[in-house]
Design a protein that fits this description.
Shape of chain B: elongated
Strand order of the largest sheet of chain A: 2-12-4-10-9
Distance between the termini of chain A: 6 Å
Order of helices and strands of chain A: HEHEHEEHHEEHEEEHHEEEHH
Largest sheet of chain B: 9 strands, mixed
Largest interface: A-B, 120 and 125 residues
Radius of gyration of chain B: 36 Å
Helix content of chain B: 40-55%
Mean pLDDT of chain A: 83
Number of strands of chain B: 34
Structural class of chain A: alpha+beta
Strand order of the largest sheet of chain B: 14-33-32-31-15-27-30-29-28
Strand content of chain A: 15-25%
Helix content of chain A: 25-40%
Low-confidence stretches of chain B: 1031-1104
Strand content of chain B: 15-25%
Shape of chain A: extended
Oligomer: heterodimer
Low-confidence stretches of chain A: 1-26, 349-353
Structural class of chain B: alpha+beta
Largest sheet of chain A: 5 strands, antiparallel
Number of strands of chain A: 12
């Protein structure tokens, strides 16, 4: 049906377009490969060989990466101690909220056994579960200009922790907003064999935050002086840029379960050592059933202990390998010629016009 | 309301009516902004975006900076407004040109040249021959002593024949000089747009006439935009001016055409909108529930106990804003951009340049290229469209002797040349009629050649042929014609010209031989109008045979005849004719009647056969396009026989036994009904068969069918793939387009002349051929091409590519918007259903407008199949016609893909960046990077041919993403400060991104490969064939086809349908077996079985 005739005529037309002299050259569009849509193009097609090798390649790359990251993750020694329940005297456990709000001495002793040798630096994190730092009301409740310059002109975004009515005058809170107001205030003191372990709390925040986001001459003011007390108080004589716990806290987490750096232990911990932790259990997670955990962790090139990447890489690599294999099998068992015109239905009828 | 026009009064009525300034402008400088904004906001999408943007100004609910919507919105509005302004400026320029054209107007009794815009109602306007009429005039004088003038009204109603207009009786006989001083009052109705009606009266003031009121009709007017022809001058009183003319009242900016694809995109947008509302409602309820159950416990959020009254609405509105990006704001702009590029590609196409005239193709309407790929019906004109409209005298039959039968060219026939040189009286008379029975005017050019200026191409062909046969029409001086035959010069005096009208179908001249004073009547015309008037006893059988023979060859025939008149007979008749010419009532009919009295007892000299050659490549083009599943209808004003022959010779219909032609005819309602029913019955029987069944209908029967049997005719139209409609008027052409459109078909109308303008404007796509009949059709059309054969390229290459590209672009736009939106929705489930945006404002804005738009814009360069492959397998167009590449199910595929990718990106980023790494800005950038990387791979995978530009756009865009984010990360004031540097240094970032790509693209690639290899679409197969270098030619291509032109001209007598029979119905007597044996496969059974039937199932099933 498709005759060489048509093909010849169309190509003939093209040929004559090139050869014959144009009469009115001015009217002619300028010839270029772009305007004629004739730019040389790479036209890949999905041949079995290409696809199978692509999947093989993916599995060859992904499986080693998966193994490597799994090893990296497993190398990390991580000690997790969940303490929000155990740190409440058993008598008070029926009404934990009341206890945390009324009790004056919340000291709690915990001991953690090191399961494996931990090389310094050992990062100390606190982990909160079910804490929505990403809640819209919460995440917006801050004022970056105030943190940087102490300028409290427009801090309406900080509502409801923006201003404080101090008698008759209304004074701004610095730092304002719910985030700062709810600053985590549990504290940890570590000791090993009755010798205190120093926790270095310097440089736990991002350098860029200290230098550019939090002002060197902005001092906390009217903070935590309201009727409703949130979290930690701040030392009013230390500028915000030095309040590293606050800076860390103000980097809001995207997930309701998150860890924040508390400090670093800069000595190695040996296996089976026991570490005593004296912690002040101040922070109220009880009203929303949040968990609090103390985490000691070393680090690897991938970060902390997280098997997800390794497993995911192995899964994707494995699946690719499986796909490559099955495509090969299918290809060998039931080969199919690509581009067979007999598959064109208008060719299928023998003797069709 | 009446209007009183004081003729030639310089003072009054100036202020009463508008001046003659034409204004097609939509806007003025002052109202541009409000009016344009108003118009833009009348579109649903824009209202939606405006609402979203306004909601974003409310800080309580906005998840992101309002600039992220306002920015793109203002940009988009600016783009549209600029385009409108530009168009309007061009309209202003063309108006200005028309307004500043100079015309002669009487001012203070003196003729002056003034600008057209300064013509006022009541002014006397003078026009010369071939001038355009500047406003609606009532005639008061012409150069013709009878007060007649000729005008061409093609711009008004599309009819190309000349129309006569006469001055009102009151003005008859007024001196040329006095016309300047004429005074009077014209009473006429207020301006309307009826171009066929004008009821007024005129009263001239003394001294011109007594106080009689003289009635005026449309016959006494010449309307704006007509041309004065064949009349030296005419003058008239302006009655309607400027935008109040008949044309101005009916003029309007044509409704923008909406492509089927736009409609589908709108539909899908609507679906997404509904989906969005559902999501918003569900999330809003969930959010409020969560707030009341959980958030109150989260002390750090400090939810107030009592909220304001609208508290319940806050969370749903936040989600509405968060989900508003589901509908991509950039899609309209992207589509507009790529559509203008499609149009540019058409303009630029070197292969669509007409070599003869050097005219390139041009897309006037830049918005409807996709529709070209979805054409289902092509309605084509014949003369000038399929044929060259270059009449060539081919054969003749003089006194029963056939000339030119062997060579196909009578001018080279030795016998004829011998007869001419030997001076055979029959031949000489024949040649004389050819040479002088016409209205041709010879013009001697400077080089000494004689150029003929003819109104009709046929006359031109005859005069030229006569000249080639040594009967040279040399000069026309007033009424004296000069003919050179061999060496001698013969002079004739033209006594009368009996005009051609479409009713009479013949024209005659009465000439006096200046040498011997004999008076002759020379006549030429259609056979049916000449033969009845032949003198008794003459053998007309040979003539009938000749006519029939020629008609079968697709030649246009004219019978030539003559009669010698007696002096007294002429004198007597001449008086009658003069009287008839000067009557005012029913003049045309009276003249026809008088002419009839002279045109009898004719001696028939012979028959001429003129060939209107098919354009190059017409049969191939039709063949190819029909294989592409496009149905062809031919609408022509020509004779049925000629139409059928042309149809046969250009593969329009197949000869027996493969094809069959059914005829609908009849003069009365009943006859038409019976005929229609019979044809319909046959059609229903054969619809499942591979036979090419076509029907033929003439204008008269069509009129009856359309008026009384519209339903049956519609059904017939649906069933029939081919139809020939002959003797149809321009309005009938338009009616047919309307009929097919009402059946939901995509119609392309192609034509070249003024009579096709209405059809072209009515159709979904109008294509004009910039041909010999002028540029009218080309101007009114959406596309203009130089030759019919370019239609193939226009549809198969440009239309198809445009469709494919837009299909990809639009769905991809939704895909990427949905992707980011789904991530936001998922994120809301881990952020307490509070409507927090994971992404920051800058990223969101840049994502939609920049990061994802650039790579996809270069998809306008994508070619799924090479042009050659498409041309060889036109059937592939079916995918476009049936809308296989953009429909709810393909859209569902993209929807699923975006959902899958959103899950991949979201799950991987929140798990890889968990615990101590779960910093908000970092997670957001990881997710965004994941999206951008996936985009790049998706575009690459979906691009069929990757040129350097695509490489640059896709991967350059990825690089740009990083560069832009590094820049933002370097600005201390931005929220993203240092984030991107930090991420890029982390190995975990890169491993995460690669994981996202691997996990996201693996299944897509596997699925695509599986489909591509084991469930390939026809497009895939051709791609494979084309790129593997395999045999592209289909196996079914053995059958010889495409008869050459020469073959067409040779007699096809046996296989021709015997269309002379009034009722043609051999099919009913055919046994089913014989019919089935004619090949069970047609290229279309694929379409028939799979799609067309399912597409038009509801339409067709009732017939089966």
């Amino acid at each position: 049906m498709m005759s060489s005739n048509t093909a010849a005529s169309s190509s003939g037309g093209a040929g004559s377009a090139d050869s014959s002299a144009p009469r009115r050259i001015s009217k002619r569009p300028k010839y270029s490969k772009f305007t004629q849509q004739e730019l040389p193009a790479c036209k890949p097609i999905l041949t079995p060989r290409w696809v199978i090798s692509a999947f093989l390649l993916v599995s060859i790359i992904f499986i080693p990466i998966g193994v490597a990251s799994l090893f990296a993750s497993r190398d990390v020694v991580e000690l997790v101690d969940e303490y929000e329940t155990v740190c409440i005297p058993p008598a008070n456990r029926t009404d934990k909220v009341k206890y945390i709000q009324t009790s004056t001495d919340n000291t709690c002793n915990r001991s953690i056994t090191v399961t494996k040798k931990m090389k310094q630096p050992i990062y100390v994190y606190y982990q909160l579960d079910n804490f929505y730092q990403n809640h819209r009301r919460y995440v917006k409740s801050r004022n970056d200009a105030q943190l940087k310059n102490g300028n409290s002109d427009d801090i309406s975004s900080c509502k409801p922790e923006d201003n404080l009515s101090n008698g008759s005058a209304i004074v701004p809170i610095v730092p304002c907003g719910l985030i700062a107001w709810s600053l985590f205030n549990d504290t940890y003191k570590f000791s090993r064999n009755n010798l205190p372990l120093t926790v270095n709390k310097k440089d736990i925040s991002w350098k860029s935050d200290r230098e550019h986001k939090f002002g060197k001459d902005v001092y906390p003011k009217n903070f935590q002086n309201g009727t409703l007390k949130g979290g930690a108080s701040l030392n009013e004589s230390i500028p915000l840029s030095k309040q590293e716990d606050l800076i860390v806290w103000m980097r809001t987490a995207a997930l309701p379960t998150f860890r924040k750096l508390y400090g670093r232990i800069e000595v190695d911990l040996e296996e089976n050592e026991t570490i005593q932790v004296i912690l002040e259990n101040n922070y109220n997670t009880y009203s929303f059933n949040g968990k609090k955990k103390l985490v000691l962790s070393t680090t690897s090139w991938l970060g902390g202990r997280n098997d997800f990447l390794g497993i995911a890489y192995l899964t994707v690599g494995g699946l690719s390998f499986f796909l490559a294999l099955s495509f090969t099998v299918v290809y060998l068992v039931k080969p199919r010629r690509l581009g067979d015109p007999s598959y064109l239905s208008w060719n299928r009828n023998p003797g069709g016009r | 309301m009446k209007r009183y026009v004081c003729i030639n009064d310089d003072e009054s009525s100036h202020d009463l009516y508008c001046d003659n300034r034409i204004s097609n402008r939509k806007y003025t400088l002052l109202n541009f902004l409000p009016k344009n904004l108003w118009e833009q906001f009348s579109r649903f999408m824009n209202q939606y975006f405006l609402l979203i943007a306004c909601l974003q100004l409310w800080p309580l609910i906005t998840p992101v900076n309002p600039a992220s919507t306002w920015g793109p919105l203002i940009f988009i509005f600016a783009v549209s407004a600029t385009k409108e302004a530009w168009d309007d400026y061009n309209r202003y320029l063309s108006d200005k040109k028309a307004n500043e054209k100079e015309v002669w107007v009487v001012r203070q009794g003196i003729r002056k040249l003034v600008q057209a815009q300064d013509v006022h109602v009541g002014n006397i306007v003078w026009i010369r021959e071939n001038d355009e009429v500047p406003c609606d005039l009532v005639l008061i004088g012409t150069s013709d002593p009878q007060g007649v003038c000729y005008i061409e009204t093609a711009a008004l109603d599309g009819e190309t024949d000349l129309k006569t207009r006469v001055i009102p009786s009151a003005c008859v006989g007024i001196d040329y000089e006095l016309l300047h001083k004429i005074k009077g009052v014209i009473e006429c109705p207020s301006a309307d747009k009826d171009i066929r009606r004008f009821d007024g009266n005129v009263r001239l003031f003394p001294p011109f006439l007594d106080n009689d009121v003289c009635p005026l009709t449309i016959k006494n007017t010449i309307l704006q935009s007509c041309y004065l022809r064949n009349t030296e001058w005419a003058c008239g009183v302006a009655v309607y001016t400027g935008n109040e003319t008949k044309l101005g009242m009916s003029r309007g900016i044509p409704e923008p055409k909406l492509t089927a694809m736009d409609a589908m995109i709108d539909k899908l947008t609507g679906a997404i909108f509904v989906f969005q509302i559902v999501v918003v409602i569900v999330l809003g309820i969930a959010g409020n529930v969560w707030k009341d159950t959980e958030a109150r416990k989260q002390w750090y959020v400090e939810y107030p106990k009592e909220g304001p009254w609208f508290e319940l609405l806050v969370i749903p509105l936040r989600f509405e804003l968060l989900c508003s990006i589901m509908i991509p704001i950039s899609i309209k702009v992207s589509l507009d951009l790529v559509k203008s590029l499609y149009a540019k590609f058409i303009d630029w196409d070197n292969q669509m340049i007409d070599q003869e005239s050097g005219t390139p193709a041009h897309a006037t309407n830049t918005a409807i290229s996709e529709d070209l790929g979805q054409v289902e019906y092509i309605l084509t004109d014949k003369t000038g469209t399929l044929t060259e409209n270059k009449m060539i005298f081919r054969r003749c039959c003089i006194n029963g002797v056939f000339y030119g039968n062997e060579s196909g060219d009578a001018l080279k026939d030795v016998e004829l040349l011998d007869a001419v040189s030997s001076g055979s009286p029959d031949v000489i008379r024949f040649l004389t009629v050819m040479a002088i029975c016409n209205t041709v005017i010879p013009i001697r050019s400077k080089s000494g050649d004689i150029l003929y200026k003819a109104q009709s191409q046929d006359e031109d062909a005859l005069v030229r042929a006569a000249a080639r046969l040594h009967m040279i029409f040399v000069n026309k001086n007033a009424n004296i014609l000069e003919i050179k035959f061999n060496a001698s010069t013969i002079q004739y005096e033209v006594l009368e010209t009996l005009e051609f009208t479409s009713d009479r179908k013949r024209m005659s001249v009465v000439v006096k031989d200046c040498q011997n004073g004999k008076i002759f009547l020379l006549t030429k015309g259609a056979d049916e109008s000449i033969l009845p008037h032949a003198c008794a006893g003459q053998q007309t059988r040979a003539v009938i045979e000749a006519v029939e023979h020629y008609a079968q060859l697709g030649l246009r025939t004219l019978c030539l005849a003559w009669r010698e008149l007696r002096e007294d007979e002429y004198r007597e008749w001449s008086l009658l004719f003069k009287e008839a010419s000067s009557t005012l009532v029913d003049r045309e009919w009276r003249i026809a009647d008088v002419c009839q009295r002279l045109e009898h007892d004719l001696e028939i000299l012979g028959v001429t056969a003129i060939e209107d050659r098919l354009q190059d490549g017409v049969p191939e083009t039709i063949e190819t396009l029909r294989k592409a599943g496009i149905n062809f209808w031919m609408l022509t004003g020509d004779k049925q026989n000629t139409a059928i022959q042309i149809a046969l010779s250009c593969n329009f219909i197949s000869p027996e036994p493969k094809g069959q032609l059914l005829s609908i005819d009849g003069k009365t309602k009943d006859e038409v009904r019976t005929s229609l029913e019979r044809v319909l019955l046959t059609m229903r029987i054969t619809v499942s068969e591979p036979k090419d069944v076509a029907f033929v209908v003439d204008g008269w029967a069509l009129e009856i069918a359309l008026t009384y049997y519209r339903k049956a005719f519609t059904e017939l139209a649906i069933l029939s793939r081919t139809a020939i409609c002959c003797r149809v008027t321009p309005s009938q052409k338009a009616q047919l387009v309307e009929l097919l459109r009402s059946c939901d078909y995509r119609i392309l109308a192609i034509g070249d002349g003024g009579n096709d303008v209405r059809m072209i404007q009515q159709a979904d796509i109008g294509v004009g051929i910039s041909g010999r009949e002028g540029l009218q059709a080309a101007r009114a059309a959406d596309y203009s091409i130089g030759k019919f054969r370019f239609l193939k390229r226009l549809i198969l290459v440009h239309g198809r590519y445009s469709y494919n590209r837009t299909a990809f672009l639009s769905q991809y736009s939704f895909y990427k918007s949905l992707l980011i939106c789904f991530i936001q929705i998922f994120f809301s489930f881990i952020s307490g259903v509070s409507g927090t945006s994971l992404f920051n404002s800058v990223s969101l804005m840049a994502y939609n407008v920049f990061y994802t738009s650039i790579p996809v814009l270069v998809s306008v360069l994508d070619k799924d199949l090479s042009e050659e492959t498409v041309m060889q397998h036109p059937q592939i167009l079916f995918y476009c016609q049936a809308g296989r590449l953009l429909n709810p199910s393909t859209f569902a595929g993209w929807f699923g893909r975006s959902l899958f990718h959103a899950i991949v990106v979201f799950v991987i980023s929140i798990h890889a960046y968990a615990y101590e790494k779960s910093e908000m800005e970092e997670v957001s950038m990881v997710a965004l990077s994941g999206c951008i990387w996936l985009q790049a791979f998706v575009v690459t995978l979906e691009t069929n041919s990757i040129t350097i530009l695509q490489y640059i756009a896709i991967w350059g865009n990825l690089v740009a993403f990083y560069v832009i984010n590094w820049i933002f990360s370097a600005l201390p004031s931005s929220g993203m400060y240092t984030i991107m540097f930090r991420l890029c240094r982390q190995p975990s970032y890169w491993t995460t991104v690669f994981l996202i790509v691997g996990a996201g693209m693996g299944p897509i690639l596997a699925l695509k490969y599986f489909r591509y290899t084991y469930r390939p679409s026809k497009i895939n197969i051709l791609q494979q064939a084309e790129r593997m270098g395999g045999p592209i030619l289909s196996i079914g291509s053995i059958e010889p086809q495409a008869r050459s032109l020469e073959k067409d001209v040779s007699p096809l007598s046996i296989t021709q349908p015997k269309n002379r029979n009034p009722v043609f119905e051999p099919l009913l007597s055919d046994s089913p077996n014989t019919r089935r044996s004619f090949g069970s496969g047609t290229p279309f059974d694929f379409f028939q079985s799979q799609s067309r039937l399912s597409l038009s199932y509801t339409r067709n099933c009732k017939n089966n």
